[in-house]
Amino acid sequence: MEQTLIEPTEYLKNVFKADNVKSESEIIVFVLKKLKELNLVYGRDKEKVFLNQRPARTAEQILKDGYINGCTDDAILFIAAVRSFGLKPIYVEVIEKSWLESPMEQNTIRGHAYVEMDDILVDPQRKIIYIDPDFIKTRYIVFGKANEPFQLGLTDFKTIVQKFMDFKEKYQAEHKLS
């Protein structure tokens, strides 16, 4: 089987090892706390790594590098960690409605990555658990849901910008905004 960005490797399983967590809610809370304890640096070498990164880093690479460049990295790491406990989270990429409805501007995007688990939504970057996953509909439009970003065609920053711009163009045409 081909390695994915979110494969729970042995290294990752050791970092997130816990014998006393059993339920899904205990696992989610444990992983969010552990991510906070890891004290990963945010935004290091963002221009160099995030904007030119091809392909995106795996969860293990993110941990070993010691830094996170954005919400996608947070989601990749969170998903791999909860998968190491046998859970089946879903990656959710969203785009801000206000950005979709604004004039077309190249190379600016406003979106976010969440993780869906059964009837809840987790924001790994902000360390927030939402009991009502429909809350995102107030501010965002769902771009796509998948096991990992690659399945949505989100392979690097340049591609993400292009996919978001294409989505925005279609959204504006459907809503007669352009």
TrEMBL record:
Source domain of life: Bacteria
Protein name: Transglutaminase-like domain-containing protein
Organism from which the protein derives: Candidatus Brennerbacteria bacterium RIFOXYD1_FULL_41_16
